[in-house]
Amino acid sequence: MARKLKWGVISTADIARTAMIPAIQESERGEVVAIASRDADKALEMSKQYNIEKFYGSYEDLLQDPEVEAIYIPLPNHLHKEWTIRSARAGKHILCEKPSSLSAGDTVEMVEACNQAGVLFAEAFMYRYHPKHQRIKDIIASGEIGELRSIHCTFTFNSSDQEDNVRFNKEMGGGSIYDVGVYPISAARMYLKSEPEAVSVHALYSEKHGGVDMMASGLLEFPGDITLTFDCGMWAASRSNMEILGTKGTIAMPKMFGWEKTSVVPQIFVHVGTMTREERLKGHNSFKLQAEAFAAAVLDGTPLPYEPEDSILNMRVVDACIESARSRRRVIVG
């Protein structure tokens, strides 16, 4: 039996509880051996719920555990930098939830700390590990839909009635751009294999929700006069879809950032002329695929599909989007 990567999880956040911990436990190459919370009772409760051997009442204690090889960080956004750097200095490999930090400068410091410590760093954009995205790249490369003209992407949901939601705390890195806007930005960069030159974003700021952007709509200008238009929000009906427009046709994904558990539901629709083709791929759990890829990188030396520098580049675009929304002007991506 292949050796498994031993994970420690810092925080009892919902995404750890409902998605990442179960995914690691279902994977062939990983196991969660420790969980930490600043509330020891919460850590104990979660360790019992998920049959995790060890629990800690502080993040520092978990980092001192010699059995733990990799750390998953689903903390609030403003804590990503601190605990990535602390984890790196403790000799742990790091999978950090998106966004990597609150600025490109912070992400640079995080990546440098990991490089100096000789540990791996990856930003947890789980959707990118699903094979449907490689299929979409192949369709684009084939020329079936012609030359690319634009991409349109949406990612919205409604959590506006929740109280004490960290996403509504400006100091903790709240807001829809940080929370879900990062997805269409990263996806467009992934498909186009280039970086936007300028951005224009308009946002709805809500004093009822800590003054954060509860909704944002944006235009990203890529080389070759290709554009991404997107909207993201935490105060709108749920949507998660993407359309890629070419000179001959389109590719549509009705569940862009989720995944289908079976191949019964079509994941990709290709429209060319009067013809429409549906494509169904095998059902996959993107969180599990992400865990497997990270374990292969640590244990086997298999290169990660996205280098840490990709997180820096993505945050440069996010920085520009936030600046544009606040200033209500077009911003050049620096």
In short:
With 334 residues, the protein is of the alpha/beta class. It is built from 9 helices and 15 strands.
Question: What structural keywords apply?
Answer:
334 residues; Rossmann fold; Dihydrodipicolinate Reductase, domain 2; 29% strand; globular
Structure description:
The protein has 334 residues and is an alpha/beta fold. The protein has 2 domains: 5-126 and 288-305, Rossmann fold; 128-283 and 315-332, Dihydrodipicolinate Reductase, domain 2, CATH 3.30.360. 35% of the residues lie in helices and 29% in strands. The protein has 9 helices and 15 strands. The strands form 2 sheets. A 9-stranded mixed sheet has the order 14-13-12-11-7-10-9-8-15. Strands 3-2-1-4-5-6 form a 6-stranded parallel sheet, with helices on both faces. Strand 4, helix 4 (80-89) and strand 5 (93-97) form a beta-alpha-beta unit. Helix 1 packs across helix 8, helix 4 (80-89) packs parallel to helix 5 (104-117) and helix 7 packs across helix 9. The longest helix has 20 residues, at 308-327. The model has no long low-confidence stretch (mean pLDDT 96).
